[in-house]
Amino acid sequence: MTAKAARRARRLAIDGGGRAHPALWIPSPNHDARPPGTTLSLIVVHGISLPPGSFGGDGIVELFTNRLDAAAHPYYATIADLRVSAHFCIRRAGGLIQFVGCQDRAWHAGVSSWGGRGGCNDFSIGVELEGADDIPYTATQYRRLASLAKALARRYPGLAELAGHADVAPGRKTDPGPAFDWGRLSGLLGAGGPAVRAGGSSRV
Ligand SMILES: [Zn+2]
Questions:
Q1: Is 62 a catalytic residue?
Q2: What is the pLDDT along the chain (204 residues), one digit of tens a residue?
């Protein structure tokens, strides 16, 4: 195998069933079917850490699999009853977890709209970055997000845009926050892939 072929073999890919490889598959029950005939068009970028500002624990996985212990932290008591998910989470060191198959509707955006269309969960892929609004995201996270976005766009050619949760739910959500450098992501995506359409409203 040539070096180029080896790189291609290792390259992140989305299979025909909507599963990413390589990724850790931890299925979340918090999903349902997309409306029939939906074309995926948007990647929504989020930031999350549980407890807020604390990295490396099991809180995100527990939240998305309805196993968060409300007694484990005061903040957990306020969110333990939520039924939420995202398709993907990228941890600080770049580890990729998938919770919901891409063809299904994950519950990440909530009340939202983009390009005049409400209900962004219907037509988007949700990607959580383990992070916080005001703490720089890691170089590995940017690289992994860019390669995931490109892999998604190869599988779903309509998937042309990326925006933040703050952009689709302005005034209600702030993530991924001012710490997220959209220009850096745009540079990694390059031309011909999905395009960044975000970065303003997270600062207002
Ligand atoms: Zn979010």
A1: no
A2: 788 777 776 789 999 999 999 999 999 999 999 999 999 999 999 999 999 999 999 999 999 999 999 999 999 999 999 999 999 999 999 999 999 999 999 999 999 999 999 999 999 999 999 999 999 999 999 999 999 999 999 999 999 999 999 999 999 999 999 999 999 999 999 987 899 998 644 333
Residues within 5 A (CB) of ion ligand 1: 46, 165, 175
* Residue 8 CA to ligand 1 centre (angstroms): 31
What is the pTM (predicted TM-score) of this model?
0.94
3-state secondary structure of 94: coil
Of 62, 128, 130, 161, catalytic: 128
- State the Cα–Cα distance between residues 187 and 153, nearest whole angstrom: 16
Fill in the amino acid letter for 146: A
Alpha carbon of 104 to ligand 1 centroid (Å): 18
